[in-house]
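Batch manifest, entry 17 of 40.
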Amino acid sequence: MSESCYHCGDPVPQDTHLNVEILGEARSMCCPGCEAVAQTIVDSGLTSYYEYRTATADKADLVPQQLQSLSLYDNEDIQQDFVRSSENANEVTLSLEGVSCAACAWLIEKQLKREHGVLNIRVNTTTHRALLSWDPAQAKLSQLLSAIHRLGYKAAPFEADNQEQHYHQTMKNYLYRLGIAGLATMQVMMLAVALYFEVFGDLDESFRNYFRWVSLLFATPVLLYSALPFYLNAWRNLRARALGMDVPVSIALIFAYVASFYATVTEKGEVFFESISMFTFFLLIGRYLEMRARRKAAAASANLLKLIPAMANLADGSQIAAKSLKVGDVVTVLPGESLPADGVIVSGSSVIDESMLTGEPLPVRRIRGEDVYAGTINGDGNLNIQVTQDRQHSLISNIIRLQDEAQASKPKIAELADVVARYFVATILMIAAGTWLYWHQTRPDDALWITLAVLVATCPCALSLATPTALTCATSRLGRLGILLRRGHVLETLCNINQLVIDKTGTLTEGNVRIVTTACFSHQCEAEVLSISAELERFANHPIARAFSSHRNSDFSFDEVINEVGFGLKGYRNGQEWRIGKASFALFNQAQMPNEEDFQVWLTCDGQAIAAFKLDDPIRPDSKALISAFQSEGIQVTMLTGDHSDNATRVAEQLAVDKLVSGATPQGKLNYLQELDKHQITLMIGDGVNDAPVLAGAHLSLAMGSGTDIAKSSADMVLLGDHLSRILEARKLAMKTRKIIRENLSWALGYNLVILPLAVAGLVAPYIAVLGMSASSIIVVSNSLRLLKEDG
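Output type: structure tokens
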């Protein structure tokens, strides 16, 4: 029985061996047409078409209409692969083709924001990605992608493998263009030597013209093919009434060619074919090296997605694509395999290598009931894991999305640099025009090459790259440290903080709270009061609540429990009101408080003391080093805690903090922050629900990875591991990033200020101008790449 074509369903003829890899398997095709269309669908990142289609493609219309019109991206089932949905908006990360500078990013952002339904778009020129959010009730994704295509750029939902494939294809095309430009340059330069230096003596005029025609022959493919990317970028910008860095380059190349062509045909004047070829050759070398360096900077976050395996083994033994897993599915992970999705262990235990997420080199043991994450590596045990998040909402996907957000959010200095770069191009064009007019009247034979040198030498490539590359490298480095950025201002603000405000429980301490003393004041025994307390604390998410969890007894339950965050919990049962929490909250009459040693937690019934508990929470090993390091830099450290007991004082004394504020409610913590002097730039570190308001209100905030979800969603960055020393490394990296950005901008601006008057004065040859401009860009990118080093 003959095999059927995977694309159209027709039988595959005998001796036909055409196939395309789709969904991890080689699929047979019946003809070259089906093969080409299927490969196009795969290359476009639309393999979901085959997952969700209800029928094979129509033979009469091999290319699905959805692919032609981009409407396939509007399919809700397919959007599950790449679109993140919230209450009133959808969000997608796009891969962009054709973006070369800040002007391209500005153009896309400016035009897309005019589209109906677009809420926000931010383009990162380093990673060639865009973060787009829109209202699905007002606009379709296909319409917005079409708007980008109309600008001359290509856009598709980001997929790491597809973007890498596109990168390699782009680099291959650049090598082809570079090879042609290099060969032509060598040939034309030999002819130029004969023309300009007359090494063969006095050339006959016919030979001179012959050499010019041969030079024209070699230079033409360079202008029409090798330099094509520069024209396309310049045309996009001009069509949108914007000035990008490729505009002066394109003008220089085209003017030089037209003038040389005219001189060759009329046999009058000078030719610049060697300059055209050399311009293009060196420009392409610069772009090629620049793209490789920028790729290195952007690869870190994209590579995270590659950690997720393509296939997953379901508990029933069947195998499906990992991206097709849904919440509730149970998968089996064998030793040595990567986890295909975020989930919770339902059976088995193992050590898990989480270094790619947290930066911690040692694997950690995970047991039944604990959360595990996609991309981490199972060590020595068999695990059954129930999926709790689909791929779009996995921790790895969130890390990449938040990194893209942080990289796309530009500090003020970057925004200023982009504006300067745009106006700088306009200024250069006017200066070049003035230069040509002056030299055309003074030395007409030199006017053209001097103008060309001005146009090329002062191209603001380095200025546009100065900040984005540094921010991308720094964000990637922070990711390797286990610090997840959620806001773009983190690196900028981290350099300026002069006040550290830090929570105690779960932050300075391990959060591993233990009950060390229980005092009973009624007829209930210790086991009973612990059981009652555990039932109340079941409705809280705090390290103290977890200390009671092992004492739960299902025989005792409450009709209703209310959690008053920062104070305690109260529950109602058989007409009685039970409370657990601070003495000020639990006891109706504190004057009747039993004369006992210091207790942090009280259990009462109708305001009368039933029991009290003394707790202990070990201090983290690196807390002292963190505080000492900040203090050594002149940063004041305040411990801000809701704990009012002697334990808070003891921790403050052991760690030698500058100031202790204890017994603070969530609102009290926020009030303290707001009462600080306006010149105090605060970094707040916390982990609990009661820290959420102050985390949101601080200039800069960090939530512990082991903390509550609300704390992490309120913070500007999240420490995925538990080592506070990472915060010191982050600050060191932020300081180095600021230094490198300043170095980049100083170099870019300084180079242009020096080269411009020299070029206008005719002291810079065209090939020197190209070398200088390319070298300037490479220096800026290479300087930024230093941030990726381990000592960064």
